[in-house]
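#onboarding

Welcome to the new folks! Below is a worked example of what a typical request in this channel looks like: someone posts a single protein sequence, and someone else replies with the predicted structure as tokens. Don't worry about understanding the tokens yet, we'll cover that in week two.

Example request:
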Amino acid sequence: MQFYKYLIIFCLSLALINCGETNTASQTGLSIDLNTKSLLLGDRLNLSISNPKKLNITNISYQLEGKSIAKDAVLENITLGEKSLVATITYDDKTETISKTITIYNNSIPSIYNYDIVNTYPHDITSYTQGLEFYNGELYESTGQYNESKLRKVNFETGEVLKNINLDNNFFGEGLTILDEKLYQLTWRAKRGFVYDVNTFEKLKTFNYGTSKEGWGICNDGKQLYKSDGTEKIWILNPDNLSEVSHIEVYTEKGKIPALNELEWIDGKIFANIYQKNGVVIINPKTGGVEGVINFTPLRKLVTQHNELDVLNGIAYHPERKTIFVTGKNWDKLFEVKIKKQ
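Example response:
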């Protein structure tokens, strides 16, 4: 009971439990029947057609997200979330296409992770932290708020600012990541991101967002970029032209996890802050499934309490030390932690 209570309070309270089964209207009354109330990754479909008018159906074919599937296909090698299921039906020398929106959930309960504090370092209490990342042993930070947004390189042990540029006052800084000597920084609602030379902070170019409406967090796997937009979606970007190639949707076995914020790639998984929650979810980037949750709520009590103090935000992995650094918006401390599965 304690396990489920924790999940509900911290994370799954955000999960919107909804089977997501919506059939399009058909004048003939034909509709797709799943013969189940919910679908999990790995389930076998059991598709059939409801035919109330007893039409003489001679052929039925199915497609899921534009790919042909059998009526008893296994839901594997697929991402989670809302999907379009289409049936093409032939009857009396006529062909009709009907569709249904389905939702696929993860097939496992997230593991719980605890943490040990390894070190505590000073952090600029005026920094509204949005992005945090190590690159070649150096810590880089992006901060937010209109008229206050910055891009910085910081000595993480002392808090000294080694390099700093201020964003124009009309930009609200968001997440950052570094790939191949290029630093990518998002802005919130301006639908625009920036690319800098990581060594000089010279701005190389700007880019516009695609289908995603806002910029929240960003990370990379060494080849491509992953961008959150404040929903349950994480967009995969081509680093060459910054186009949105595809996306994953982040789900547990109960529902979706919205408000995904700062992102960090750690050992093949995406770690993500949830906005206004002092915790982190661990995501499988191939499916969008939540594999773990970390409750960092106690850390907030260890920083100076003041009127501008805000939620946990900022995750940076140090590959040589194999530790994770976390802080928050207007926190005066940066915590180095090691996580462990409960």
